[in-house]
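Private note to self, pasted from the team thread so I don't lose it. Backbone tokens:
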């Protein structure tokens, strides 16, 4: 580990950074992927045909809020060197609003939509901010490895939260409880674990960046907007980053559809029970952790582009297996292939952005990455949801169509030149920033 870390970074600090991935993964695993999404469709929406579309629309609204704010939040964090403080605000918000999801009972559509939008907005904002610390912690030649540690550790955190919920659901079902009774408790469990596991991050992770804004020179909102406007004006200098963000938008649309709708597909098409689905997601988190760690190592050896290409080919294979699956065996194989590719592709994407972002503007450029990821999280699930609705509930067709996003991502990836993009990032970082 020490050879992979930047000078002055300790093992404890690297661990505390990875602990945030551990902490927040419970939210995506339990709320977005495994438990609350299926509960929303079956219980909150009371099994209506518009339930899946309502779920994807609520997610789309939360992602739209992140898209509108992410680069400006990042520019503010860079200007005032306050990534850690903003991360704390987003964490408290996500924990509180996740706990509030316990109030969403049968038919309580407004409550469920409100708190899923707020909690997911806070999660997405925090995800961008924690990622901006990566280039400060890892050596340039070890970005893939360190990013892989975070994602791999994160999936273990997802396992802990899901395992706790799985144990509780198993007990609750033996007591004759229904989903309307045990799912709200799962939301409280998830929120509590997020809060506790994130404590090391705020105790040991250092804010290394220095304030870049002269507070008396201009009002802060105006200065932050001027910094972002400068980035927009200089966009042509970051052509490889822009191409990679377009690639990210494409392949993450497919990933987002799979993550957001996995348990719905398992329930509606494969006939899985709640406990069957939880067990499936539990096992998939193990393969995702392995994928993040294994491919993070290979990424620094064989190259970022080659690694991401392999994982996108794997995603295409997964789509084919899901479409062909008529029984649980092939579906289980497809799900674990998805897990392996999910950990690898998400870890690789974060490392590539760390390579292409100017060192003095990390939060802002990871905010742009967050924009692409969240826009994909609208595009992919909405494509799936609309296809399912227009086809009268044909989930197999919806899954097959989302596979086109992986093909598009592969084609765009071929045009990205990482060496040229890195040179542009370093050159930009050496120039003075205009704050107003």
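Design output:
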């Amino acid at each position: 580990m020490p050879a992979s870390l930047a000078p002055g970074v300790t093992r404890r600090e690297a661990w505390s950074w990875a602990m945030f991935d551990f902490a927040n993964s419970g939210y995506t695993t339990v709320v977005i992927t495994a438990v609350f999404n299926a509960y929303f469709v079956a219980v909150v929406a009371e099994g209506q045909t518009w339930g899946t579309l309502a779920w994807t629309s609520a997610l789309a609204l939360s992602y739209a809020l992140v898209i509108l704010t992410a680069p400006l939040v990042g520019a503010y964090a860079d200007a005032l060197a306050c990534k850690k403080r903003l991360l704390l605000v987003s964490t408290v918000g996500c924990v509180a609003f996740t706990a509030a999801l316990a109030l969403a009972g049968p038919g309580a559509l407004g409550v469920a939509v409100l708190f899923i939008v707020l909690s997911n907005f806070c999660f997405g904002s925090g995800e961008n901010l924690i990622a901006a610390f990566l280039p400060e912690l890892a050596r340039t030649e070890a970005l893939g490895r360190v990013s892989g540690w975070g994602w791999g550790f994160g999936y273990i955190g997802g396992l802990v939260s899901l395992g706790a919920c799985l144990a509780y659901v198993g007990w609750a079902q033996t007591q004759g409880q229904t989903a309307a009774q045990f799912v709200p408790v799962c939301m409280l469990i998830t929120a509590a674990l997020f809060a506790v596991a994130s404590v090391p991050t705020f105790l040991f992770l250092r804010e290394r960046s220095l304030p870049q804004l002269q507070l008396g020179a201009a009002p802060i909102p105006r200065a932050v907007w001027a910094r972002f406007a400068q980035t927009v004006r200089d966009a042509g200098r970051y052509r490889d980053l822009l191409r990679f963000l377009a690639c990210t938008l494409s392949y993450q649309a497919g990933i987002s559809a799979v993550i957001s709708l996995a348990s719905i597909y398992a329930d509606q098409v494969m006939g899985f029970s709640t406990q069957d689905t939880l067990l499936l997601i539990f096992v998939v988190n193990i393969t995702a952790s392995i994928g993040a760690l294994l491919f993070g190592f290979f990424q620094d050896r064989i190259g970022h582009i080659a690694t991401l290409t392999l994982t996108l080919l794997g995603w295409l294979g997964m789509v084919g297996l899901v479409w062909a699956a008529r029984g649980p065996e092939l579906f289980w194989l497809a799900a674990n292939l998805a897990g392996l590719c999910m950990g690898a592709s998400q870890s690789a994407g974060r490392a590539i952005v760390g390579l292409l972002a100017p060192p003095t503007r990390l939060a802002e450029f990871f905010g742009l990455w967050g924009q692409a990821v969240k826009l994909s999280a609208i595009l992919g699930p909405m494509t799936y949801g609309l296809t399912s609705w227009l086809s009268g509930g044909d989930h197999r067709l919806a899954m097959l169509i989302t596979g086109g996003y992986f093909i598009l991502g592969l084609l765009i990836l071929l045009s990205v030149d990482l060496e040229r993009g890195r040179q542009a990032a370093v050159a930009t970082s050496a120039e003075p920033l205009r704050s107003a």
